[in-house]
Specification:
Mean pLDDT: 88
Largest sheet: 7 strands, mixed
Distance between the termini: 47 Å
Radius of gyration: 16 Å
Number of domains: 1
Number of helices: 5
Number of strands: 7
Order of helices and strands: HHEHEHEEHEEE
Strand content: 15-25%
Shape: globular
Structural class: alpha/beta
CATH class: Alpha Beta
Strand order of the largest sheet: 2-1-3-4-5-6-7
CATH topology: Glutaredoxin
């Protein structure tokens, strides 16, 4: 008897993020050459199965504006994934949810550099919100952490 297994079921069973990365869109991060926390966020995203390509920019705010993320949501880096923008240290789980739900939006933002967010890990971190940035520049809470 032939058995057929879905690649995603096999990935889930094996826990392989490498195989899952083939299914996920690439994340392009635009970051300063001196930011260490951005590298930690990249590691977080790769562990969650994303392929990440880093692009070094000298003008992070100018690049954010060029990409289309309103400056009021600014952080230390801006990323693109599947037509959405990610501002700052957005958790991979929120990106997975964004890609699954596909809302009409600019993307997600974790404004500033919230302690406790991926790449900004500290013990006993205070809670923070990830915002869904709407196409009109307003936002609403997408996730609480």
């Amino acid at each position: 008897m032939k058995r057929w297994f879905s690649p995603l079921l096999v990935v889930a069973a094996l826990g392989s993020t490498a195989a899952l990365a083939q299914e996920l869109p690439q994340v392009d991060i635009y970051k300063s050459p001196t930011c260490d926390c951005c590298g930690k966020w990249i590691e977080h995203m790769r562990k969650a199965g994303f392929k990440v390509e880093a692009h070094v920019v000298t003008d992070v705010p100018g690049n954010r504006k060029k990409l289309g993320m309103p400056d009021k949501y600014g952080s230390c880096h801006t990323s693109k994934v599947a037509g959405y923008l990610l501002e700052g240290h957005v958790p991979a789980a929120d990106v997975h949810r964004l890609l699954k739900e596909k809302p009409k939006a600019v993307g997600l933002a974790s404004p500033g550099m919230p302690p406790g967010s991926p790449g900004m890990d500290i013990p006993n971190a205070p809670p923070y919100d990830v915002l869904l940035v709407q196409t009109d520049g307003t936002s609403k809470v997408f996730a609480k952490h």
